[in-house]
Amino acid sequence: MLQKTLREEIIFSGIGIHTGLWSRIVLHPEPAGTGIRFLRKGTYIDAHVDNVVSTNHATDLAKEGVRVKTVEHILAVLHLLGVDNLTVELVEGVEIPIMDGGGGVFYDTLKEAVEDLGTEAEVFKIPASLRVEEGSSFIWAEPSDRLEIEYMGTFKNFLGERHFRFTGEPEEIVYARTFCYYDEIPLIKGAGLGKGGNLDNTLVLLDKGVLNEGGMFYEDEPVRHKVLDIMGDLYLLGKPIVGKIISRRGGHYLNVKLIKMLKELATEGKLSHSLV
Ligand code: ZN
């Protein structure tokens, strides 16, 4: 597999789901070896786990006091497309625009613009089995010769227990929107988040059904969105990942905890105490 960038500059604009503020991003093609990075106020921020500063309802990066919020959906699409060299410049706003609430708008636009570079891509192969956990949630990772992601979710409404297995086809997850429970909305707003959330970008779950007209895009849309988030967060390893991931009720916090442990394995070349 060759390294990839985009054929031309591409611009997206829209509101940020948490800030509610208007954002405009310009995606600049880059040569092989650049990696994925964000640019805001003259500061380059590598899409790397070392730059994660928050995992509260989204994954935020910062460097030298310059922050970029909610990076996970665009990173998921870049990961799915194998685009590994790009600068995502925020020319307006602090947050990646939420667009359709998933990766659909990014994916439909970018898939036509991917360009191979003449250099072999590097991938991150999960070297050994490991597990991270928080309360009753956990993520298990193990070596495999291809990328596989499974998510087991417990929903407190009509969805109940859901088990979804992602086999690598972007359309399985890319249109799955971010979601919340209807009765959680005051809590999210009270925390100063979700200011840009609306029924065009967020699936609102009720006890029976959803608030959105037109219902769900997939019959298990929320669990697929969790896999989209994993794809985005995992790209903070700096390379496409090859291996098997099984998450039970994991979120951004556990995804990042897993990446930190994988990175530790890769950089130190030794087995950490958390290995099993
Ligand atoms: Zn998400």
Descriptive overview:
The chain contains five helices and 19 strands. It has helices spanning 72-81, 104-110, 185-190, 221-234, 252-268, and strands spanning 2-6, 10-15, 22-29, 36-40, 43-46, 52-54, 60-63, 66-68, 86-92, 114-120, 124-125, 130-134, 137-142, 148-154, 161-166, 178-181, 202-205, 241-242, 244-248. The strands form six sheets. Strands 2-3-9-4-5 form a five-stranded mixed beta sheet, with no helix packed on it. A five-stranded mixed beta sheet has the order 12-13-19-14-15, with helices on one face. A three-stranded antiparallel beta sheet has the order 6-7-8, with no helix packed on it. Helix 4 (221-234) packs parallel to helix 5 (252-268). It starts with a strand and ends in an 8-residue tail after the last helix. Bound molecules: zinc ion. Zinc ion is lined by residues 72-73, 178, 225, 229.
Task: Give the tags.
five-stranded mixed beta sheet, alpha+beta, 5 helices, disordered C terminus, globular, 276 residues, 34% strand, binds zinc ion
Q: How much helical structure, as a percent, in the residues?
A: 10-25%
Order of helical and strand elements: EEEEEEEEHEHEEEEEEEHEHEEH
The rounded distance between the terminal residues' Cα atoms is 31 Å
Name the poorly predicted regions: 271-276
**Total number of helical segments?**
5
Alpha-carbon Rg, integer: 18 Å
Structural class: alpha+beta
How many DSSP-defined strands? 19
Q: What small molecules does this complex bind?
A: zinc ion
Main sheet summary:
5 strands, mixed
What overall form do the CA principal axes indicate? globular
Give, in spatial order, the strands making up the sheet with the most strands.
2-3-9-4-5
